[in-house]
Amino acid sequence: MTKVIALANQKGGVGKTTTAVNLGIGLAADGKKVLLVDADAQGNLTDSLGFHEPDNLSVSLATLLAKTMLEESYEAREGILHHHEGVDLMPGNIELSAVEVSLVNTMSRETILRSYIDSVKADYDYVLIDCMPSLGMLTINALAAADSVIIPVQAHYLPAKGMTQLLQTIARVRRQINPKLVLDGVLLTMVDSRTKFAKDISFILRRDYGDKLRVFNTEIPLSVRAAETSAKGKSIYVHDPDGKAAEAYAAFTKEVQSIGSERRHARQHQTDHSR
Ligand SMILES: Nc1ncnc2c1ncn2[C@@H]1O[C@H](COP(=O)(O)OP(=O)(O)OP(=O)(O)O)[C@@H](O)[C@H]1O
Questions:
Q1: Is the pTM of this model over 0.90?
Q2: Measured from the CB, is residue 154 less than 6 Å from ligand 1?
Q3: CA–centroid distance, residue 155 to ligand 1 (Å)
C-alpha cells in the first residue's frame, strides 16, 4: 500500500526540501518506488532535483490541480519528471500561488491535491509532499492528502508558538477532513554538535507536547555539503557519500520505514485481539 507523507512546517528554511530529496532518494535506494510532489510555489524541490527553471515547465502540479478543479481529464503520468537517482517528481512552480487563490472558491477545496495524488499513487510505495512554508490552503490540502506528517525543525530556534499552531492545524485536519492522519514526528535538522541546542529543543518539545510528539532518534547535522546539494541537483548520498549528513539521512530513511512497519504490526495486533 502506498504511504503518503507530508513534510510540513510553516516556518521557512527548516530543511523540508532537503529532507524530501534525501528521504525520497534514500527510500529509492532501498528499492522503493517514490514520487516527490513539490507543493511549494517557490519550486525549490524541483530546482534541487536539477530542474533549475521550474517556472518554465509547461506542465506542473499547478496545471494538474487546475484540471482536477475543473474536472478535466489528464494523462496518467502527465508532467511527471524522473531524476537519475531513482525518484519521480511532480514539479511545482510559481503558478501554484494562483491555484492556491482559486482553491478558496472551489468545491472540495481542501481535497483537490488528494484527488490528484489518488489518481497517480498506485504506481508508488511512497509519495512525499514538500509543503509551502505557510498554513495556507495548499498545506491544508497536503495534510488532507497525507497518511502522516513529518515536521522538520531547525535546531537553532525554539519552535514555541509556531509548533502549537501547526499541531492545532494537524488536529483540525484530522477531525474535519482526514481522520487517518498521524504525526510521525519531529526531525531535528541543521544540528550543530558544538552546541547543546538540539538537546534543549528535544527537551522542550517533550516537556510541552508530551508523548504525543515523537522526536526522531536521528538528527541531521549542520553540513555545508548538505547545503550545497540543491545547487548541484544531487542527493547528499552522491554529493558527499562518506559524510555525516549522508549517514544521518540514511539512518532517518530506515527510521521512517520502521515506523511504517511498527504501525502495521500494531494494527494487526489490534485486529487479532478484536476477533
Ligand atoms: N543539514 C543542513 N546543514 C546546513 N544547511 C542545510 C542543511 N539542510 C538544509 N540546509 C540549507 O538550509 C536552507 C533551507 O533548507 P531547505 O530549503 O531544505 O528548507 P525548507 O524548509 O524547505 O525551506 P522553505 O520553507 O523556504 O521551502 C537551504 O539553503 C539548504 O541548502
A1: yes
A2: no
A3: 12
